[in-house]
Amino acid sequence: MVSARFRHRSPLVVLLVALSWALATASPATSPEAGARGRYRGQCRRLTKQIEYYEGTILPMAIERRNAGWERSTNEQVARLWHQRVDLCPVYGAERTLMARAADQARRFNQFLASAGRAVATYFSGGALP
What we know:
Helices cover about 80% and strands about 0% of the residues. By secondary structure, it is mostly helical.
């Protein structure tokens, strides 16, 4: 039997325990370095398996059946999964940075080739082509 003195404190204690438990379980998942500490390891594996499945099974099937819409939507889904995995798993963040840098270099190289092609066309046409 609980004495009258502690009867009014028990809901407060239960509330404080519930609140501290909620904060303890929510804070690691919302911190930015949660993936670095392995909080999302299972989700990282799941996303990696999904990406492999879409790229290895679904995409070849869409290409084989010559369904452009299916192929495009599968590629978009792979991109969504890939970016979600990079956001959750910092191990893959360097890969996204490297790919962005490579795309930027390819863009600059294409611009260089286009300007060189224009210069060559102008030279060999005697200035007839701008």
